[in-house]
Amino acid sequence: MDRSLAAVLALTLCGAAALAAAPPSFEDLVAGLGSPSAKAREESAAALGKSKRREAVAPLGAAVRDPEKKVRVQAVRALRSLGDPEAAAALAGALTDGEPEVRREAVGALVEVYGASRPGPVDRFMDTFSDETVPPSVGPGVAIEPRAQEALLAALRDPDEEVRERAAEALGILNVRSASPALASALLDPAPGVRKTAALALAQVGTAADGKALIPLLNDESAEVRQRALQAVGHLKVREAAPTLRELYEANARKDSGLRALGALSRVGEPAQGELFQQLVQDTDPLKKRLAVEGLARISDTTQLSAFKKDYQREKNEEVKLAYAFALVRLGDRDFVDTLVLNLPSRTTGGRSRAYLLELGPDVLPALYPYLTDPDAGVRAALSDIIGAAGDPGAIPRLTPLLNDPSTTVADRAHLAVERLKRIESAQQSR
Fold first, then answer.
1. Separation between Cα atoms, residue 342 and residue 376, nearest integer Å
2. Listed residue (299, 252, 250) closest to 271, CA to CA
3. How far apart are the first and last CA of the chain?
């Protein structure tokens, strides 16, 4: 064979191989959703999800109605990967799918397209949080598609238990305030998993008045449901729960369940429990003592102010001493903010300091601003988080200098806080 002809043939073959190996274009992938092969449609949906292109929302939304279940599941997963709120309407439609697997995937996708990512699968979300805290909701200023809200509310009555559980969780994470009555009804669900998830979701979106529906769950047959109900009534400060909480504590004072009940009782702020807390302040158990100090602070017992100052000086246990500082600040002595702030970088007490400062709310912000120039980067970073979470847009000028902080960690946390406060400010102005 002529050498030049052989060269041409070789180049032609190489070109054909290169074309065969070239990845399909975006247009090819969209066209692939109409292939007669279910496998090809499934693969196209997966690839479109990885494309991260907003234009993929519409064709994938149509694929959610594909006759093949595997394709529908993959289309929902692809919409989840895109992370675009424009996909919410299509995902809401997927919540009426005849297959439970599609509906389960759709609930998780609805949460994630609004940027509410979390560690681990949806059904393990709540377990990443301690008994004393409630998971955060989606950020402020995020408008949830009305059809998505309606679909999630309807999903609380889904025949599939896992769909109901995930829907309750999603309503809490997405901060759907109008869901409180439906979540209160879900507290009566026959499945313990749904009841416990609805309890936690109600804590996220409800009020103290809504929380009265949680009281029967304090004696639920499921230990997990009882635990979440304790957490929720404490977070919502349901004073009507105080008598039941006290009964539970006194009947189980030496058990973990009793201490959980005491913890919830210390959070609800019921003045009638003051005498119990005054007794427990003298207890030798540091945990009971800490909870008693917190309880007296939350019922605003100012008669304790002088005694607490003395006890603060004498206390050896770090967590109890921190509780005294919290109580003193709550009762009006801002000098003890120093103890709370300087404990923020601590691995052992930092989390509790942060929780105390968040609980003290916007009123304590003026006392925190001077610490934004603290030499400890850990203090500056933690305060950025706390000030951002407090939700007062007036704090933006205070945080702005930290955007150029020598610590990249501080600068990043300040940036996140400022952006959060700007969203809150924008939402306030649009009302």
1. 9
2. 299
3. 81
Block residue for tokens 């603060």? 312
Sequence-distant (6+) residues with CB within 8 A of 288 are 259, 262, 280
Reported as half-sphere exposure (CB side, CA atoms, 13 A), residue 354 has a value of 22
Q: How distant, in Å, are the alpha carbons of 156, 197, 230, 336 from that of 223? A: 22, 13, 11, 38
Burial bucket for residue 11 (CB in 10 Å: 0-12, 13-18, 19+)? exposed
Query: In sequence order, which residues have a C-beta less than 8 Å from that of residue 313 and are 6 or more positions away?
Result: none
Residue 215 backbone zone (phi > 0: left; psi -120 to 50: alpha; other: beta): alpha
What type of residue sits at position 322? L
Side chain identity at residue 170, one-letter code: A
How far is 110 from 89, CA to CA, in rounded Å?
A: 9
Q: Indicate the SS3 state at residue 25.
A: coil
Q: Which two tokens stand for residue 302?
A: 């100012």
- Other C-beta atoms within 10 Å of 202: how many? 31
For residue 225, give the nearest of 235, 216, 233, 217 by alpha carbon. Answer: 217
Taking CA atoms, 362 is separated from 237, 368, 390, in Å, by 18, 10, 6
pLDDT tens per residue across span 131-150: 456 666 676 667 889 999 99
Tens digit of pLDDT for each residue in 43-94?
Answer: 999 999 999 899 999 999 999 999 999 999 999 999 999 999 999 999 999 9
Most distant CA pair in the chain, distance: 107
Using CA atoms, how far residue 93 sits from 18, 76, 139, 148, in Å, is: 41, 11, 24, 8
Distance (Å, rounded) from C-alpha 135 to C-alpha 125?
Answer: 8
Answer whether residue 330 shows pLDDT above 50: yes
* Token code pair at residue 247: 């009964």
The CA distance from 25 to 22, in Å, is 9
pTM of the entire structure? 0.85
Task: Give the E-state strand segments of 75-158 in sequence order.
Answer: none
DSSP three-state, residue 121: coil
Q: Which DSSP string do the residues of 55-89 spell out, in sequence order?
A: GGHHHHHHHTT-SSHHHHHHHHHHHHHHT-GGGHH
Residues 6+ apart with CB under 8 A from 123: 162, 165, 166, 169
